[in-house]
Design a protein that fits this description.
This protein has two domains: about 120 residues, NAD(P)-binding Rossmann-like Domain (Rossmann fold, 3-Layer(aba) Sandwich), CATH 3.40.50.720; about 180 residues, Rossmann fold (3-Layer(aba) Sandwich). Helix 1 runs parallel beside helix 12 and helix 5 packs across helix 7. It is built from twelve helices and twelve strands. Strand 3, helix 3 and strand 4 form a beta-alpha-beta unit. The chain has a seven-stranded parallel sheet with strand order 8-7-6-9-10-11-12, with helices on both faces. It starts with 8 loop residues before the first strand and ends in a 9-residue tail after the last helix. The chain is of the alpha/beta class. It binds (2R)-2,3-dihydroxypropanoic acid. The site of (2R)-2,3-dihydroxypropanoic acid has 8 residues, from loops.
């Protein structure tokens, strides 16, 4: 095969869906990390000399320091994620490396998980499951495990992008009154009945339930801090399926202990993998291990979207999800 006909050489850093790996193996000279351990800085630097393209997940960190050490071969980082806070975009751009993500295809799966977390946090899922599972359930009373009703309550959404809007659509099924904060007000066909707030503070004052759906950026780091938790209606429930960096975890614990919030549903943590050991003592924190997009349908769709972006790039076009 001549250099012209050669298939682009692709490194896939994690175990993606079978359908994704089959398609990648058909179309690319692919190396798959079946060990499924996160790619280290050294592996990324070495890969930049051996591969034309990488499909990473949010578990691989393309920091400015790592990217500065890249060889010249790597041309595209086609992320298998919508979030790109693991990529230093200016550093990659400076090296002329194209970066793409996988928007849209994971919105429903993530919104479903946000709904699970909201309901589970509101209705004592952690304590309820444990008491039945351990055989400790030996009495019943009308005062037993009384939770907070979702139906008809006010829901505040921070970040009314694709996932935020998908979550709002599901929450309408629970007759929730939807409020949102976004950098800009949405057009009426996207906002539907949702009420816009031009500041986070104004939104928090009406959020009986609060769900975070904005990206992690320097501006949104510790977005939910001590002052902002204090603005929520007493006994509010907070849900985070976006990124752990958005929540000051010490402030969250403090707000729970003071009763400013009654429960939290978290799929994201400041430290991942691992989470926050201090949360384990609190039954009113319902936790999952960053699995918002983890459905079979969505994993295939994410993998195919990353490959669509690669196909466009190597076909001489601008990838649909180029950042
Ligand atoms: C995303 O796509 O950003 C999800 O958090 C999974 O990585």
């Amino acid at each position: 095969m001549s250099e012209v006909d050669r298939k682009p050489r692709l490194w896939i850093t994690r175990r993606l869906s079978d359908a994704t790996l089959e398609r990648a193996a058909r179309d690319y000279d692919v190396v798959i990390n079946y060990d499924d351990q996160p790619g280290t800085a050294d592996q990324l630097i070495a890969a930049s000399a051996d591969f034309d393209a990488i499909i990473p997940c949010h578990s691989e960190h393309f920091s400015a320091d790592v990217v500065a050490q890249f060889a010249d071969r790597l041309r595209i980082v086609a992320n298998h994620s919508v979030g790109v806070d693991h990529c230093d975009l200016p550093a990659l751009k400076k090296r002329g490396i194209v970066v793409t993500n996988t928007p849209d295809v994971l919105s429903d799966a993530t919104a479903e998980l946000a709904m699970l977390l909201m309901l589970g946090a509101a209705r004592n899922a952690v304590a309820g499951d444990r008491i039945v599972r351990t055989g400790a359930w030996d009495s019943w009373s009308p005062a037993f495990m009384v939770g907070k009703q979702v139906t008809g309550a006010r829901l505040g959404i921070i970040g009314m992008g694709r996932v935020g809007r998908a979550f709002a659509a599901k929450a309408r099924g629970f007759d929730m009154e939807i409020h949102y904060y976004n950098r800009s007000e949405l057009p009426a066909d996207q906002a539907k009945d949702a009420i816009y707030h031009d500041s986070v503070e104004s939104l928090l004052e009406v959020a009986d339930f609060l769900s975070l759906h904005c990206p992690a950026t320097p501006e949104t780091t510790n977005l939910m801090n001590q002052e902002r938790f204090a603005l929520l209606p007493p006994g509010a429930v907070i849900v985070n399926t976006a990124r752990g960096a958005l929540v000051d975890e010490a402030a969250l614990l403090d707000a729970l202990e003071k009763g400013q919030i009654s429960a939290a549903g978290l799929d994201c943590f400041q430290t991942e993998p691992g989470g926050n050991p201090a949360f384990s003592a609190h039954d009113n924190i319902f936790m999952l291990p960053h699995i918002g997009s983890a459905t079979r349908k969505t994993r295939d769709a994410m993998g195919f979207r990353a490959l669509d972006n690669l196909d466009a790039f190597f076909g001489g076009q601008t990838p649909g999800d180029q950042l």
